[in-house]
Amino acid sequence: MTSLIIPVDSFDYVVFGGNGDLAERKLLPALYHRDLDGQIPADCRIIGASRTAISDDEYRDFARKAIDTFVSTADRKPEAIERFIGRLSYLQVDARSDDGWDALKARLDEAPPERIRAFYLAVGPALFGDFAMRIRQFGLVNANTRLVVEKPVGRDLQSARELNRIIGEHFDEQQVFRIDHYLGKETVQNLMALRFANMLYEPLWNSAYVDHVQITVAESVGLEGRAGYYDKAGALRDMVQNHIVQLMCLVALEPPAAIDGDSLRDEKLKVLRALKPIDASNIEHVTVRGQYRAGASNGGPVAGYLEDLGEPNSSTETFVAIKAEINNWRWAGVPFYLRTGKRLTQRMSEIVVTFRPIPHSIFGPNAGHVQQNQLVLRLQPDEGVKQWLMIKDPGPGGMRLRHVPLDMSFAESFGVRNPDAYERLLMDVIRGNQTLFMRRDEVEAAWEWIDPILTAWAEKDVKPQGYTSGTWGPSSSIALIERDGRTWHEPE
Ligand code: BG6
Fold it and tell me: Which residues bind NADP(+) (predicted)?
């Protein structure tokens, strides 16, 4: 099957933190893929920038290595790689001083003045303000400038507000693209297609027909050398405040009038504002914190969190489970069970919508148990959608029922490679399409829900419970859902 690739307008991408981990693992491979597919016009340039002194050639070698490591063999086409490498250059630029900024301006000014300029801040949030200020101060902003900001946007409501304020001093909200890469995942966008391009689901998408929703983002990896950041963040800030809350919003939102930036984001905001507060009064009942201990992962023994961290103590959670509720007409009484963790049994992310039981079974006891319908949206590792239904077991011998999935596994059904989320998002930045990016008020509303959880954990001294690496987390997370007579969806 061929896919329709529409080239974007010419642009220059400046990647601050251009020789960092994110650029290496995600940004350069994603841009390469878009180039390989013919989406990037011939005159576009990619400029890596950071404080490190490296030459253009060294930067190109860095990019070659990134492609070798993070692009599949089948997609590594020598001609395409050389074309892509030819777009790259590097400049030494310091966020905290004036060094390098004139050179960057001169480089950008070589292009036509109205060309799209995207500045990607692949750096820690402590530098967002300095970069935003200097990009503006050195006259780098033209009529088509976009600023791309990576998470974390703050570590609580107050710091998020402050970051947004600083960015807002130098850029209009229409120029700011706050990345949550989960929104670029194919299945997440498919959730919008399923809900709003079919008549089937929407009439059932409410508390009358939906029993509960589960959102799991399980990782098998541990700290991955990010101890400094992670130990200060923890799973609630790292995964729930952004990725999981965003997924919950997309499941729960009212139909927007159009799929454009503000229509969708207005609806997400309403969900965020309807979230039932979690505070000291209910914290112990509806949340679980965990921290991994030594165990096994990917077939081998692995160390515990404290050992990975190299510290004797830490009360940072690497696992969190939450029973969330949305106080509005559509969702009142429908729990959204959320969980995420590192060093779990396997890498697996999914959204599961479980419908209510049928009101009455006409089939006798020999037919078997009539199970509840489930819609399973798998984000990873293999993206796809399964709608579980009851059907008759084929053949003679009476009526026996069977639970079977209608399977829409993307890779198999469409015969195409699943693009990485960053490919879609990096091109949306160029198109100026903000739909899949977080708006300022959304980020702050998410923190408004998260902050009291952090406060209540501290107030009630809720410590993370240990769980063995390679399991599904602390046993209390099983109890969290089983208390309600439900179970976590077992991955197949
Ligand atoms: C990042 C988190 O935002 O998402 C990481 O900071 C996490 O801790 C990662 O590992 C997971 O992303 P993905 O796309 O691999 O599920």
Answer: 51, 151
Contact (CB, 8 A) for 216 and 340: yes
Q: Name the CATH superfamily for 183-482.
A: Dihydrodipicolinate Reductase; domain 2 (3.30.360.10)
Are 434 and 174 in contact, with CB atoms under 8 Å apart? yes
Question: Mutation test of ligand 1: which of 149, 181, 319, 379 has the most ligand atoms closer than 8 Å to its C-beta?
Answer: 181
Could you read off the pLDDT of 412-434 as tens digits, one per residue? 666 677 889 999 999 999 999 99
- In the block, residue with structure tokens 């679980």: 288
- Tens-digit pLDDT profile for residues 190-226: 899 999 999 999 999 999 999 999 999 999 999 988 8
pLDDT at 1 over 60: no
**CA nearest neighbour of 480 among 246, 323, 264:** 323
Distance CA 490, CA 492 (A): 6
Question: 11-150 domain in CATH 3.40.50.720?
Answer: yes
Those residues whose C-beta lies under 8 Å from the C-beta of residue 153, and which sit 6 or more positions away, are: 125, 160, 163, 164, 178, 438, 443
Structure tokens that stand for 129 in this block: 């303000």
Q: Is 383 in the pocket of ligand 1 (CB under 6 A)?
A: no
In the chain, residues under CATH classification 3.30.360.10 are 183-482
Q: Atom 9 (ligand 1): residue with closest C-alpha?
A: 239
> Which of 341, 191, 228, 331 shows the shortest CA–CA distance to 272?
331
**Full-model pTM:** 0.95
**Two tokens at 110?**
């070589």
Query: Cα 142 from chain centroid?
Result: 30
238 CB under 6 A from ligand 1? yes
Query: Do 298 and 215 contact (CB within 8 A), yes or no?
Result: no
Chain-centre distance of CA 79, in angstroms? 32
